[in-house]
Amino acid sequence: VELPSPIYLAVYMVLVAFGGLLYSAKVYVTSPAMRKKIMKDFGVRLGKVGKTLKEIERKTFHLCGLLVPLIFALLLEAGFSKWFCSKICWVLTVTGWTMDILRLNVKFVKENFPLNPILREKEKNQLSGACYFSLGCTLAISFFPPAVAMTSILFLVLGDMSAALIGRSFGGDVVVVKLGREGKKSVEGSVAMFVTCFILGCTVFSTVHLREYPVVVGAFVATLTELYEPFGLNDNLTIPLLSSLALTW
What we know:
This protein is mainly α. The protein has 11 helices and 2 strands. Strands 1-2 form a two-stranded antiparallel ribbon. It is globular, with a radius of gyration of 18 Å.
């Protein structure tokens, strides 16, 4: 199977990252009052507006994750090898894990850690999602074809984002059944993630014949992984790995 060319991947990732930048800029320049009005205009229940706005702020920062496939694609197009990109990823991952372990064990680092404002309550006394994100991306880049690795990272960044935002905004409004390991996730959020991943996969592999079959499987696996976090592992690690495996079936 002939996978997308480096130039196609580079252009695609630039467009996706540019879209993410525009969205982020729009969020940050919009006043809190206007954000609430927009939420209400979109039909978000009044009781969910506050939590939805907080989730938007968190997930908007997570769009920085688009820099990973963007830089990877640009380096490949510039002539650097996949092995070179993989080495950079491992250096950054080891550095990130070291800093996070210091945060958990050294008081000064913990009090002055730059990401403290966006850490979830449960992350304050355990490894952050960023550590698992970096490791998941690094493993995907190291062991899978570039197009597959980039797609799996997009599944994680944009698919998970759509699940969180739609789930927070409309979860339980249409289908009251709750899903996931702890029964806290919504059907609406899961459908949003599957659709987002499917669209991303089909557009990344637009030049591949019969792409929709592996893409459906990959999107389905990514959605199930986000829902149930198999093996009890953080989905920032498992989504890139399991969806990459599914896309190469």
